[in-house]
Amino acid sequence: MAGHGADEHPHGADRLCETGDRVYSRAVRRGRVPRRDAEPVPCLLELALLHPDPDDMDWLVPTSPQEVMTRLLRGMHDEVSASQRRVGSAVAAVEWYAGLGRQVRPAASGAEGPAIRVLDGLARIQAAMDEATQACTTEVLTVQPGGIRREAELSEGLHRALALRGRGVRMRDLYTHVARHGQGLLTYLELMGDAVEARTLDEVIDRLILFDRTVAFIPANSDRTMALELRHPAIVEYLVTVFERLWRLAIPLTAPLPDTGIEGISHREQSIAALLAEGHQDAVVAERLGISVRTCRAHIARLSETLGAASRTQLGVRIAQAGLDGPQRSTTPLNVPGQESPSVR
To answer: In terms of pLDDT, which residue wins out, 120 or 85?
Structure first.
């Protein structure tokens, strides 16, 4: 296989080369392929998409597409979780350094402004946002957690969004899946037209607004009466990278959410099950998914009923048995207590 190493096949299972796609597809259709067919594409063996047939080593059999899907989804889940942890650490560090900065007299400098500025009070935050909006010329990236957006929140920033659209600025917004159910957001997006593109995830990081990849705004306290204005290039670049990775994993608002493959369990209930399996309390699960605690508990009750669990302890066991304790699994039908071979929808 010399000459056909990783340098010629620098990809993963999510983006096979043309030859690899053709050989793997043939193996799935026929059940196996001769080993010589895979010689031009060692990537299939390196990625464990093909492996030797134990009955005849001259042949290769494919890993099932369902198993490959599970690997990819697990990798996506791990990547999002890691990004969220890194952002949380970075925000904590920024707050710590900002606190130290307030204790030191600033040195005279010819720079336009500080790399990190603490905005105390809604009026100062609003003024800084208006200033950044007026200076923006190309792009705005936002992360909007918290579930369904209130009409007041959308109205508050509408004048800035319209001003940006008028100058041809492109906007990309990330929301939680729950935000799909808010009529106010749908009305806002219809009003903005193709100037705004929106996608959703099960859960997102805390609020983030980036203008022209040069200035970012993040909350500095839990009730959002303080904010940090960030102009340090390294910090801004890091936040842009986090946004782009989340954006790649998110689902366009115009596309439906993926089916769980288990009859009676919705996509939201699958997300709740995964968080419960991690040991989170109801209030934490509700906050991370952008729903109320009451709504969260109603979903947990339906989840318990569907899985035939009589207690929270038993529910944890059922969640693991059904494969709901991690990222979305394959669409192979799963049997849950009290149901006869549920069909895949």
So the answer is: 120
Query: What is the Cα–Cα distance from 190 to 81, expressed in whole angstroms?
Result: 32
Confidence (pLDDT) at 105 = 56
Q: How many CB atoms lie within 10 A of CB 174?
A: 22
Q: How many CB atoms lie within 10 A of CB 187?
A: 12
CA neighbor of 140 nearest in space, from 203, 197, 71: 197
Structure tokens at 24: 């793997």
- Provide CB contacts within 8 A for 35, sequence distance 6+: 52, 57, 58, 59, 60
**Higher per-residue pLDDT: 308 or 184:** 308
In the structure, what pLDDT confidence band is assigned to residue 323 with cuts at 50, 70 and 90? confident
> pTM of the prediction?
0.55
Alpha-carbon distance of 231 to 211, in angstroms, equals 10
Residue type, 144: Q
Q: HSE on the CB side for 310, CA within 13 Å? A: 1
Q: How many CB atoms lie within 10 A of CB 199?
A: 19
CA 141 to chain centre: 15
Q: Which of 183, 192, 188, 182 is nearest to 147 (CA)?
A: 182
